[in-house]
Specification:
single chain, 357 residues, alpha/beta, Rossmann fold, Dihydrodipicolinate Reductase, domain 2, eight-stranded mixed sheet, six-stranded parallel sheet, 14 strands
Length: 357
């Protein structure tokens, strides 16, 4: 079996809690050979824990080295574009955490660079590789006609879930100036993407790129791309967003928000004439939680059937399995740079509604 060497840029929560355990589970297909982080203390702690000898403080040193075939980009979001481009330039395949980048122009540049170099770039929308979502997508395709759809994601802060469930090494050797520079870079990237907007709209865009990109990308996987945004608004400093998407014969309602309740409340629901299909998913930061599909349908003259199916397994493992199949067997990538660009186009249209309020 073909095995690939993986270098990881950014050793934060996603790498420590999600990707490293998934890659260890798939040890016959992947070997983690290199790590990179700006914090020496985190780099050494994670390297020692997982027995990885290749350690770099500068991402360019990792992507230019010969000790990896694939680069996982999981460092802070505003750096994803430049690290992804650097990895492509060296001929490496890339799995990049969302958001791949902040602007539509950057997304097209990544897509063109990947085509030019002949490498694979897969965006880390792990749920779209989960068997539950694939089955829901196929089930919804048989619904005729669809009457209504709904996407819902309201969660507490990740820290409320991560703190009691995972041990995460955190950098104590970074100066406040480095942290501040990261925040400023984030704000500049948002301005470059959508213009000089208010702090509220900037926060809303940040949430769209992060939390909401998973939900809206999954929406597109299940019911396709909307024709247009009918309505979008944001409240509570950008931390609460609602929208309505035009699908022609029906409307999909979207709602998301971040509060202080330690739970993850997220689902997608599609209403047909005689059947309702719902997929409910939990936080990815506790591995192997069930994804649940519920089908409610009419049975006979006065009958009602309500069936539930649960899947065990980890969605991050599924996305790595899919990447392996792409590289070895030519399986198409669903979450391509071009696909991510469609999310950015949707976000940009939502932002125009925010601005008009």
């Amino acid at each position: 079996m073909q095995s690939y060497r993986v270098g990881i840029v950014g050793m934060g929560e996603a790498a420590q809690i999600l990707h490293l355990p998934s890659l260890a589970y798939l040890r016959e297909k992947f070997e983690v050979t290199a790590l990179c982080d700006v914090s020496r203390s985190v780099l050494d702690a994670v390297g020692d824990q997982w027995g990885v000898a290749g350690r770099y403080l500068e991402y360019r040193d990792l992507v230019e080295s010969d000790d990896n075939d694939i680069v996982l980009v999981s460092n802070p979001s505003p750096l994803h574009y430049e690290v992804t481009m650097a990895a492509i330039e060296t001929g490496k395949h890339v799995l990049v955490e969302k958001p791949m980048c902040y602007s539509i122009t950057e997304a097209h540049e990544i897509a063109e660079a990947a085509r030019s170099r002949g490498v694979t770039v897969q965006v880390g929308y792990m749920r779209r590789y989960a068997p539950a979502f694939i089955e829901v997508r196929d089930r919804v395709a048989a619904l005729e006609p669809v009457r209504l759809a709904r996407v819902h994601a309201v969660i507490g802060s990740n820290a409320q879930i991560i703190s009691p469930t995972s041990k995460v090494f955190r950098g104590t050797d970074l100066s406040p100036s480095v942290i501040q520079q990261g925040k400023e870079k984030d704000r500049r990237a948002i301005t470059q993407a959508i213009g000089d907007v208010s702090d509220t709209i900037a926060m809303a865009y940040y949430i769209l790129l992060g939390l909401s990109s998973h939900d809206l990308s999954a929406m597109r996987e299940i019911i396709g791309d909307p024709k247009r945004v009918l309505y979008a608004a944001t409240r509570f400093g950008g931390r609460s967003i609602s929208a309505a998407f035009d699908y022609g014969d029906y409307v999909c309602h979207f709602e998301t928000g971040i509060d202080e309740i330690p739970r993850f409340d997220a689902h997608i629901e599609v209403y047909g004439n005689n059947e309702v299909v719902r997929v409910q998913y939990d936080t990815p930061y506790v591995r192997n939680l069930n994804t649940v599909m519920t089908v409610t349908e009419s049975k006979g003259l006065h009958g009602l059937s309500h069936n539930e199916r649960r899947w065990w397994g980890d969605n991050f493992t599924e996305e790595w399995e899919s990447l392996h199949a792409t590289l070895t067997d030519g399986l198409p990538v669903r979450t391509t740079p071009e696909d991510f660009a469609r999310d950015l186009e949707l976000f940009a249209e939502m932002v125009e509604h925010f601005k008009s309020e």
